Amino acid sequence: MALLALIWLAPDVRADAEVRRADPLEVPTGEPPQPEGAAALASPERIRAAAAVLREHGHSELPVLAWALLASARSQQQGELVELAVELAPRSPGVRFEAARLSRDPRELVAALVALAQDFPGILWLVSLAAMSLLGGLLALALGACLVAALRGLPLHGHALGHRLRATEPPAWPGVLLCVAGFCVLPLFGVGGVLVAATAGALGALRLDRDQALRLALMLGALGVALGLGLERVTPALVAASRESDLIAAWRIDRGEALPGDLASVERASARDPGDLLLRFALATDRKRRGDLSHVVELLGDPLTSPEPALRSASFNLRGIARLAEGNLSEAIPAFERARAADETAPVMFNLSQAYGRALLLSEQQSAFAAASSLDDHLVNRYLAAEGASVHSVLIQAPLSLPLYLSRALEQSAESKALARELRERLLGPLEPDRLWMALPLIGAIAFLLHRGSVTRCSRCQRPLCSHCSREAMLVGTCTPCVRLFASRDTTDPRMRKQQLDLDRSRERHAQIRLALGGLLAPGAADLVEGRRLRGAASLFTLGVGLAMLCAPAVLPQPWDLGALGLAAPYALGALLVAPLYALGLSAALGRLSGSRRGS
Prior knowledge:
Layout: H1 2-9, H2 17-20, H3 35-38, H4 44-56, H5 63-76, H6 79-88, H7 93-103, H8 106-118, H9 120-162, H10 173-185, H11 193-205, H12 210-240, H13 246-254, H14 262-272, H15 277-289, H16 294-300, H17 309-326, H18 329-342, H19 346-358, H20 362-375, H21 377-384, H22 391-394, H23 402-409, H24 414-428, H25 433-436, H26 439-449, H27 471-476, H28 480-487, H29 494-521, H30 525-529, H31 533-555, H32 565-599
Helix pairs in contact: 5-6, 5-7, 6-7, 7-8, 8-9, 9-10, 9-11, 9-12, 9-31, 10-11, 11-12, 11-26, 12-24, 12-26, 13-14, 13-15, 14-15, 15-16, 15-17, 16-17, 17-18, 17-19, 18-19, 19-20, 20-21, 29-32, 31-32
């Protein structure tokens, strides 16, 4: 009885020599078949067989093989090749979009858009496209408001300056030409076009009312923040979305859909920055798929140096997979336990249960398996139903989460700062481009604080009225020429009134023609001039967004994963925004022209 009690109370001997080792797992070794060679096979069955061999090496998707199948389907008109391509790369937005184009199936188009929203290069491209569209809308809105303010305010400044030449009814054009000459001199001092337009608008806003000056200040402030803080946040995504992006290459390797050249790109990046655990993790994952387990732990190094819990957990999980595949339980179980301590996920708990089971620790195995099932029951059941004893089908190595890659992609770098500086230099000029964006909100604030209020205009001919010309005319609200011609009819020749009426109609007709041309060139500008500010601002912003989308394929870096979707989507969205605006602008222009002809 005493012997039985001792056996019952004795703790589990987990460091025993029989527990330290277990039978190694089956590890596929050697170079897997290349997707380029598999695509040249004659029948879909052979292609499926080649894809199965690639999946045995841990590759989840085969986009290169899928694109080759789509090219064959396009030339041979075989629908089964399209279905097989989607089967090989169901999460590739470019493959889905090309399949939708070949099969003319709208469901595939919806699937392509869903895949785009879940694809790391696709999300970076969407962020870049949205940022460029927003910047284009703000540019169009701010420049349109500055142009309208300059057209309204600069003649009033010219009128005020003209009083130095003539006491009453001075010409405005000398002062306007003087202002324009001053604006033309600014680029010689390193001031860009956007800042010149903002200066012209702010100078014109000094003679406008409070509401218009406030709107201009808000627009310039929004544009300045977008060119300053906004570019600092967006340019990392632009850099990360390039075709030569090391981060995208690591993402493809991690997800088992690496392209030719991705491994070399990650190796070069890891050589430049040996302390980056994410790059080392991608290289270790590739070594695991090649069956080179001896270098997996060496490449991972010490995962505790990473501040990201998910990355530490995935690294310890990969180390445990490598050790368990070798049969080394004494190092595999502590690695899985460290992975659980960093971030308890379903793959980690499932692998830990497998290690406990091989160590004959059945109670721990049951609790770990229950925890894995509660976290992701579908994933656990899928691996339980998998056939074979390969390490890729027995143990789970889930790819790193998408938010982890996104947070890494949005980190500022030397390349992103240089790109932001270059963009500001093109828009604002080479004079201190990193600080010159602050001048836009400052100019708007000065224009709002120093504006003098609206100028009184003649109720009939809309000439500006000022105290220098006639104080009595300001009180009456009608200019002196209109009073002489139309108020005192007894002493005025009717032919002079008729001549003035003809001049007024001609001026109104020319004004309508100018508004019609302005509405054709920039829909919404005519609405701003006529006082319909909300409608005009919405039209100009939409126009800027649409034009930015139309220019995006030639400007933004397009990841390989998007295929033709990266060209078709911006063009389609841009056309949907721009075409209705120009149709409405053409209709409004024709209405103005017909009205001016009837008035004449």
